[in-house]
């Protein structure tokens, strides 16, 4: 018999607890996708800027750049980040047909690319969890985000062994160049963020109406 979702979450919680960390409190991180920027941050370093949100119930990308020599599925196969620094690059984006996508398109279209940049960060997340965006920092060459992973409420349907994709569209208040940004990283802790940073557009994060539970609470 396959293990229950609750048993799998308990195992994940026990594994996470073996590492001393404190999520976005600054004392540690459970995983790191890249080194922190070596240069001092030109912007951010605290609360994230306004952002839009999408969640896809598969491990395919929520947004991707169109390619004439690729099929639609091939282009979506590998979720990845995008630095959108012009209207032409924004026009190249294609989106999954999911709830909230029209609001995200509008959010991107409303960007003043003479003074702002949209940074798209998307990553796979276990289906029974979601990420909270705790903070952001950036320079002309580096972008770094802080996340916290939390378990969904017990009554939110999910598959314990499945992956989903979450995408966030951050409107950075600086005119960056996609050619100059060479490092895009993040760190992920647990325990929730010290502040509440909800998306301003797009889809509804799962479990939002029922409140947030930590990984320990959902086990």
Automatic annotation (TrEMBL):
It comes from Halorubellus litoreus. Residues 23-52, 66-87, 178-219 are annotated as: Disordered. Residues 66-77 have a biased composition (Basic and acidic residues). This is Lipoprotein. InterPro entries: TAT_signal (IPR006311).
